[in-house]
Amino acid sequence: MGKVYLVGAGPGDPDLLTIKGMKAIQAADVILYDRLVNKEILEFAKPSTKFFYCGKDPNKYSLPQEETNRMLVSLAKKGHTITRLKGGDPFVFGRGGEEAEILAQNQIPFEIVPGITSGIAAPAYAGIPVTHRDYSSSVAFVTAVNKPGMSKDAYWEHLAHGPETLCVYMGVKRLPEICELLIRHGKSIDTPVALVHLGTTASQKTVTGTLGTIVEQASEIKNPAMIVIGDVVQMRQKISWFKEQVADLEMTLP
């Protein structure tokens, strides 16, 4: 019987990969990796390592989760050491819990290697702390897709009156609807909002506004991007530190 490492590859910057994650890549003879994994970290693997792409592209054909589960079980039963690489953290909207459950059901040894999730890292690289004693003592990491069995209104009403900071994953295409629902259920139209595209990478771009303005201001922002909603977004004006692509280009203009 082999072994599976479910590894969080971090938010994009290869330097944010954990040491334990790097060791799992080095130990693997098979690596299954997702779409948002920075390919640079695959260079830590042994020359003989075999790679399988298991990405889920929302605009193209994606490998079904069931097929990924089958591959993990089959390869492990053949005695392979497998590292399953996921962008961010495997247990934060990464379906790592589902894969761990399948492995446990098949009595396959596995380890969980947490990674830095983009919900923390992307705002940090944009100069936005997700908590701050003057602005927010609570934060929620949420997906733009409401829970099964819960209506959109119930889901966003709960969030509109919940944590002071919302970090929304996979929400760019639904940004107009998200803003409308939060405002409808009591969130101020002037609540600050930021979208961080390709956070922590050399292509990072951040756009800020409010619930009432961000849809128009961020019209050119595409996936992948993290949406941050709350008063903490105001801190970007004070502690923005990472030189983003647009800022660098502006510095070179005559």
TrEMBL record:
Record-annotated Tetrapyrrole methylase domain positions: 3-214
Gene3D superfamilies: Cobalt-precorrin-4 Transmethylase, Domain 1, Methyltransferase, Cobalt-precorrin-4 Transmethylase, Domain 2
One BP annotation, GO: siroheme biosynthetic process
CDD domains, sorted: SUMT
Presence of the UniProt keyword Transferase in the record: yes
InterPro entries according to UniProt: 4pyrrol_Mease, 4pyrrol_Methylase_sf, 4pyrrole_Mease_sub1, 4pyrrole_Mease_sub2, CobA/CysG_C, Siro_Cobalamin_biosynth, Uropor_MeTrfase_CS
GO molecular function: uroporphyrin-III C-methyltransferase activity
Domain of life (superkingdom): Bacteria
EC number: 2.1.1.107
Keyword terms, alphabetized: Methyltransferase, Porphyrin biosynthesis, S-adenosyl-L-methionine, Transferase
Family: Belongs to the precorrin methyltransferase family.
Record's protein name: Uroporphyrinogen-III C-methyltransferase
Gene symbol of the encoding locus: cysG
